[in-house]
Structure formats: structure tokens, C-alpha cells
């Protein structure tokens, strides 16, 4: 069945529908990963976005039981060049088509995804709507250009009540701004005792959980949309070691006096090179972000830039000069993507151990 993508600048792409026969609008972004579509479509950081995958054939290995980054996907649509409806893989449970259909997410295939990606690169991300053929295009363009950006994504995807994933080692409070399960998994693999809490939990409530460390998760939208989290982080800085990932990194920066802004088309893919400034070492990283910490704003803070993006020089990692706290804009949990940066979870646990040691020495 024919279906189309209409963009706020009036451009439209006609292709074939798959997934749910429904209409949704969202910010149209692209991801350059060649595999990992299941993790991408279930990554809560894509809440409200329509994702174009630049790799031309998607769906070959189907959808399996294990690779979800959240149980309920929050994306508003998936656009591919060609979708495979008869997947083949030993873990395959169902096709991408039937999965999206059951989850109410529209798909669009058979369009020139290279053209769409170039358009986004030139213009910046655009609002768009996946819809049927019998709509008034003019009306949709009007509606899209009059609509602002969404501001409630974190609230939509964050957990409602705290829960406990027991472990024998350090107590980590994981603040869920739209957490990818890969982060929780990375802590569980290291035997951490994890309490996952909602995004608007106060510093006082977090301290009551007696954390050894606090992990600020990834999440959707503009970091400025969650001011209560900025206050919470300010109250925790210096009291408990903090590690921020992606949105968590941006929030740590805001809480420390830096500023953030929206990139033209963001970084989304599984092969983004990042340079560690102190050593010159390059990690190939998984990324998904539309906002960035402003490099120039760091001069007014006690933050040091530890990592930078090789492609465009933007800030990819920060360290606090006074308190045990660091953060990265990329995804050490990978899922999907290379695992070059997984050592950062160990660095977090090492920071916690050092902090405990120095507190013991102070107590003597
Ligand atoms: N993956 C993330 O945490 C993304 C952070 C933020 N929503 C951004 O787009 O920049």
C-alpha cells in the first residue's frame, strides 16, 4: 500500500507502507548503523522521532527476544530503503513488519533514503509526518511548520516507580531519563546492586538509598526540559561519585554551569570516532544525540573536556576538576555498536573505590 513522508519544508517522498497503518509525526533523523535496527527502534532516546536508516536493506535477521533496549518502543516511525519481510536467523521470533504493526509504529519503505539523508544534512533535522496518500499535503506542511518541538519526552519514557536489581557489589542509583537496558546490563554484569529511580527523584531521596555511585542515563529530547534533574545533580555533586551517559552527560554539564545547544543533524550511528585528549587514543563509538555541550561554555566551569569527536570536534567527554564526576556523550554500553568504550563502566567503579578509600583515610 502506498504511503508517504511529508516534511515541513514541503518535500515529500512516496513509498510503500509497512508496520502499523497509522499516521505519526516527529523529528526526522538518520542513523548510519549497518545493523542494530532492533536496538535503535527500542532506544527510548528516539522518543517522538522518525528514524531513517541509511543502510539499504533492513530486517534480514528479524526481531528477537533479547535485543530490546526498552520493552515499549517510543519512536514515531521507521524509514528504510527496502524491508525484508521473511527474516532468517536462529534467534528470529518475528519480522520487523509484524513487530511494528503490533506496536502501532508506522514504517515507510521504497523511498530514496540517500536523498532524504542529504536533505537532513543540508537543512538540519526536519519535522515530518508519515501518512496515507489521501491527505492534503499543504495542510500537513502548515501543521508541521507551526508545531514546536516536544518537551515531555523524558517524562513519557522514564520509569514511574523505583525498582531494585540486586547484586553483591556497589550500590548504584541509576537515574532513568529513558534508560537503555544495555546500561543496566553493563552494571549487572559487574555485580552492582542497582536501584533504578524515576527522572524526577530528589537528591534527598537518592541519598536515602545510600548509593556508592550515581549513574545518569541517556534519554530523549532537550536536556533543558528537565530542570529538576539539574538541581538534583547540583545537590549530589561532591557527595557521591557520578557518571553521566549522553543525556546524563549533558545534564551534568548544565548542572556545572556549561550550556548546551542543538546540533544541525546530530550524531547517530555505530562508528563515530572519538579522541581521548590526554592520550590521543581513538575509540569507535555508538552515538545517538541531537544536542551537544557547548565547548566555549566550559571556560566558565570547573569541567575539563576529556574527549572530542574526530568528525566535527564537538565535546564527547567531560571530567569535573573538583568532584568525582565524569561523563561521555557516546554510549559505552554500545547496543548496538562497538564495545571499545565499555571500560568506562570499570573506570566508574574504580572512581567509586578510590573515593571510598579517600573517605576511609579522612576518617582515621
Ligand atoms: N541518547 C541520548 O541520551 C540523547 C541525548 C539528547 N536527547 C540528545 O539528543 O542529544
Automatic annotation (TrEMBL):
Enzyme Commission designation: 6.3.5.5
Pathway(s) served: Pyrimidine metabolism; UMP biosynthesis via de novo pathway; (S)-dihydroorotate from bicarbonate: step 1/3; Amino-acid biosynthesis; L-arginine biosynthesis; carbamoyl phosphate from bicarbonate: step 1/1
Residues covered by region (CPSase): 1-170
Keyword check for ATP-binding: yes
Gene3D superfamilies: 3.40.50.880, Carbamoyl-phosphate synthase small subunit, N-terminal domain
Carbamoyl-phosphate synthase small subunit N-terminal domain boundaries: 1-131
Active site: residue positions: 246 (nucleophile), 331, 333
Catalysed reactions, as listed in the record: L-glutamine + H2O = L-glutamate + NH4(+); hydrogencarbonate + L-glutamine + 2 ATP + H2O = carbamoyl phosphate + L-glutamate + 2 ADP + phosphate + 2 H(+)
PROSITE patterns recorded: GATASE_TYPE_1
SUPFAM superfamilies named in the record: Carbamoyl phosphate synthetase, small subunit N-terminal domain, Class I glutamine amidotransferase-like
Family: Belongs to the CarA family.
Subunit structure as annotated in this protein's UniProt entry: Composed of two chains; the small (or glutamine) chain promotes the hydrolysis of glutamine to ammonia, which is used by the large (or ammonia) chain to synthesize carbamoyl phosphate. Tetramer of heterodimers (alpha,beta)4.
Protein purpose: Small subunit of the glutamine-dependent carbamoyl phosphate synthetase (CPSase). CPSase catalyzes the formation of carbamoyl phosphate from the ammonia moiety of glutamine, carbonate, and phosphate donated by ATP, constituting the first step of 2 biosynthetic pathways, one leading to arginine and/or urea and the other to pyrimidine nucleotides. The small subunit (glutamine amidotransferase) binds and cleaves glutamine to supply the large subunit with the substrate ammonia.
PANTHER family to which the protein is assigned, alphabetical: CARBAMOYL-PHOSPHATE SYNTHASE SMALL CHAIN (PTHR43418:SF7), MULTIFUNCTIONAL TRYPTOPHAN BIOSYNTHESIS PROTEIN-RELATED (PTHR43418)
Protein known as: Carbamoyl phosphate synthase small chain
Phylogenetic placement of the source organism: Bacteria, Bacillati, Bacillota, Bacilli, Bacillales
Gene for this chain: carA
Amino acid at each position: 500500500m502506498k504511503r508517504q513522508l511529508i516534511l515541513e519544508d514541503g518535500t515529500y517522498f512516496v513509498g510503500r507502507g509497512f508496520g502499523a497503518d497509522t499516521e505519526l509525526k516527529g523529528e526526522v533523523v538518520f542513523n548510519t548503523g549497518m545493523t542494530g535496527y532492533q536496538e535503535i527502534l527500542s532506544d527510548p532516546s528516539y522518543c517522538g522521532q522518525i528514524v531513517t536508516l541509511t543502510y539499504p536493506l533492513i530486517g534480514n535477521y528479524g526481531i528477537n527476544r533479547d535485543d530490546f533496549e526498552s520493552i515499549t518502543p517510543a519512536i514515531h516511525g521507521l524509514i528504510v530503503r527496502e524491508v525484508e519481510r521473511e527474516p532468517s536467523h536462529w534467534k528470529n521470533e518475528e519480522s520487523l513488519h509484524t513487530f511494528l504493526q503490533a506496536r502501532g509504529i508506522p514504517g515507510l519503505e521504497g523511498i530514496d533514503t540517500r536523498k532524504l539523508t542529504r536533505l537532513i544534512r543540508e537543512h538540519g533535522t526536519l519535522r515530518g509526518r508519515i501518512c496515507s496518500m489521501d491527505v492534503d499535503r499543504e495542510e500537513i506542511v502548515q501543521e508541521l511548520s507551526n508545531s514546536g518541538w516536544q518537551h515531555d519526552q523524558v517524562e513519557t519514557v522514564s520509569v514511574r516507580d523505583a525498582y531494585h536489581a540486586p547484586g553483591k557489589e556497589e550500590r548504584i542509583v541509576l537515574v532513568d531519563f529513558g534508560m537503555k537496558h544495555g546500561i543496566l546490563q553493563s552494571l549487572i554484569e559487574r555485580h552492582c546492586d542497582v536501584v533504578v529511580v524515576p527522572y524526577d527523584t530528589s537528591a534527598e531521596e537518592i541519598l536515602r538509598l545510600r548509593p556508592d555511585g550515581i549513574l545518569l542515563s541517556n534519554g530523549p529530547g532537550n536536556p533543558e526540559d528537565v530542570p529538576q534533574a539539574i538541581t538534583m545533580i547540583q545537590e549530589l555533586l561532591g557527595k557521591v561519585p557520578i557518571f553521566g551517559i549522553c543525556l546524563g552527560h549533558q545534564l551534568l554539564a548544565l548542572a556545572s554551569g556549561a550550556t548546551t545547544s542543538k546540533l544541525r543533524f546530530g550524531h547517530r550511528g555505530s562508528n563515530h570516532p572519538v579522541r581521548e585528549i590526554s592520550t590521543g587514543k581513538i575509540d569507535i563509538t555508538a552515538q545517538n544525540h541531537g544536542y551537544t555541550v557547548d565547548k566555549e561554555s566550559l571556560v566558565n566551569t570547573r569541567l575539563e573536556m576529556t574527549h572530542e569527536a574526530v568528525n566535527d570536534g564537538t565535546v564527547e567527554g567531560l571530567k569535573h576538576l573538583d568532584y568525582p564526576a565524569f561523563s561521555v556523550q557516546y554510549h559505552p554500553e554500545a547496543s548496538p555498536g562497538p564495545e571499545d568504550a565499555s571500560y568506562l563502566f570499570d573506570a566508574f567503579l574504580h572512581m567509586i573505590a578510590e573515593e571510598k578509600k579517600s573517605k576511609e583515610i579522612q576518617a582515621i
